[in-house]
Automatic annotation (TrEMBL):
<dbReference type="InterPro" id="IPR052546">
    <property type="entry name" value="Transposase_8_domain"/>
</dbReference>
<dbReference type="GO" id="GO:0004803">
    <property type="term" value="F:transposase activity"/>
</dbReference>
<dbReference type="Pfam" id="PF01527">
    <property type="entry name" value="HTH_Tnp_1"/>
</dbReference>
<dbReference type="InterPro" id="IPR002514">
    <property type="entry name" value="Transposase_8"/>
</dbReference>
<protein>
    <submittedName>
        <fullName>Putative transposase</fullName>
    </submittedName>
</protein>
<dbReference type="GO" id="GO:0003677">
    <property type="term" value="F:DNA binding"/>
</dbReference>
<dbReference type="GO" id="GO:0006313">
    <property type="term" value="P:DNA transposition"/>
</dbReference>
<dbReference type="InterPro" id="IPR009057">
    <property type="entry name" value="Homeodomain-like_sf"/>
</dbReference>
Length: 88
């Protein structure tokens, strides 16, 4: 996954500029991002504060680790079921 040039703090700052009255097109040009990126940020971070965005990032990382653990456990269970199904 490509790493963003902007941190969550910067993104939230840009969105606050939009709430203050700047248009999306102006902000996109000023910060060098596409309109699509701006609207994606707005859908994800709209109304958030910096602390909430940091908490979201921590939760997403934790969720990613838990999903990986679950997949590994499911693979182990599947392998054990196959082994038990075979006649020795």
């Amino acid at each position: 996954m490509k790493r963003s040039r902007f941190s969550e703090e910067q993104i939230i700052g840009i969105l606050k500029e939009h709430q203050a009255g700047m248009s999306a097109a102006e902000l996109s040009r000023k910060h060098g991002v596409s309109d699509g990126t701006f609207y994606k940020w707005r859908s994800k971070y709209s109304g958030m504060e910096v602390s909430e965005a940091k908490r979201l990032k921590v939760l997403e990382e934790e969720n990613k680790k838990l999903k990986k653990l679950l997949a590994e456990q499911m693979l182990d269970v599947s392998t054990l079921k196959e082994m038990l199904g075979k006649n020795f």
